[in-house]
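HOLO CASE FILE
Compound: zinc ion
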Amino acid sequence: MDKLVITRPDDWHLHLRDDALLASVLPYTCARFSRAVVMPNLDPPITTVAQAAEYRQRILAARPAGSSFTPLMTLYLTDDTSAGEIRKAAAAEFVVGVKYYPAGATTLSAAGVTAIEKVYPALDAMQAADVPLLVHGEATDPTVDVFDRERAFIDQALAPLAQKFPQLRIVFEHITTADAVEFVLAARRGIAATITPQHILLNRNALFAQGLQPHHYCLPVLKRERHRRRVLEAATGGSERFFLGTDSAPHATADKQSACGCAGIFSAHAAIELYAEAFAEAGRLDRLEPFASHHGADFYRLPRNQENITLTKNPWTVSRTLKFGQHDLTPFRAGAEVAWRLEGNDD
Ligand code: DOR
Ligand code: ZN
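Model generated. C-alpha cells follow.
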C-alpha cells in the first residue's frame, strides 16, 4: 500500500509555547491536524480558565490564513487549584482537561503537584464534573532509576489514584513501557493513553548512537527495545484505549546542545508521516486511522473529523534546522529521510 487516505487526525498532546515561538511551530500542526490538546506548561503556567482563554486567542490569531485548526485547552494542576476553578473549566467548552505534572518530573513542572493529597478537592470536583485528568506518569524520587520512573509511578501513584477516584477519566500521557501498556489494558473503564512517534520508532540506543544525541532526549526518556515493541503493538493493536499524542516539544537548538540539555523532541513538522512509518513497519497501516483519528475524539466525546488527508509513500528529506522565533530548532530526523509524505506538503 503506497497511498493512504484517512480522516484528518488530531494531536491529543502538544506543546505550542507562546508568542513568536508559537507562530513558528503552529503551522506544522495546522497542516496535519484538525485539533490538538495544548499543554499548559508555559512560564508562568496556565492555571486558570481566564488564562487558558487568552492563550487560546493567541493560538487562534497565530494560525496561518485559512486554517480552521482548533486548539483544545488544558489547565495546569497545582497544589492550590480550587474546586471552583475546576467547575469553571467544566463549563468552558474549550477546556478539555487538567494536566497533572508531579512537581519536578519534567520541563516547567516546578509549579506542579507536590503531594497528591493536596489536590484531592480538585480531583473530587473533576470526577463530579467529568473533567479528564491528563497525567505525566513518572515518579519524581531522584533515587529511582530514570528508566524505571514510569513503572514506579504506576504502582505508587496511578493505580491507587484510579481506584480512589473510580469515575475520574484519566489519560496516561506519552506511555513508554510494556508496564504502562499492561496497566492501561487491564484498567477500569475511563483510562486511556497517548503514544508519541519517538517512543514507537526509537529505543534508548538512539540516545547514544555514535555519541550523545541530545535531539533524541525527551521525558519520559526512550526505553529499551522490548518496551518500544510493546508500545508499538499497543498503538497498532486496535484498542480504543490508545491514541495519537505527539508530545512535540520544541526547544532552541542551543538549549538542547548544551551542558544541561532540555528534554523535548520536536516532531510536528512530520508527525503523521512518522506514525505512518511506524505503522507500516508493523504491517498495520490499516490501524493508523482509528489510532490517529477516531479513538481520541471518542475518548474526549468530541465528533470525529469529516475531512480526509492523503499520505503517499514518497520519501522526503527533513531540513536540518527550522525557524523558532529568533532562534532555530533541530527537528526530529533533521537532515534525514521520512518515508511517507503528506499530500500538499512540498518540503
Ligand atoms: O520531553 C519533554 N518535553 N517532556 C515533557 O514532559 C515536557 C516537554 C517540554 O515541555 O519540553
Ligand atoms: Zn508533553
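CASE NOTES: The pocket of DOR (ligand 1) is lined by residues 15, 41, 106-107, 136, 218-219, 249, 263-264 (CB under 6 Å). The longest strand covers residues 308-317.
CLOSED: yes
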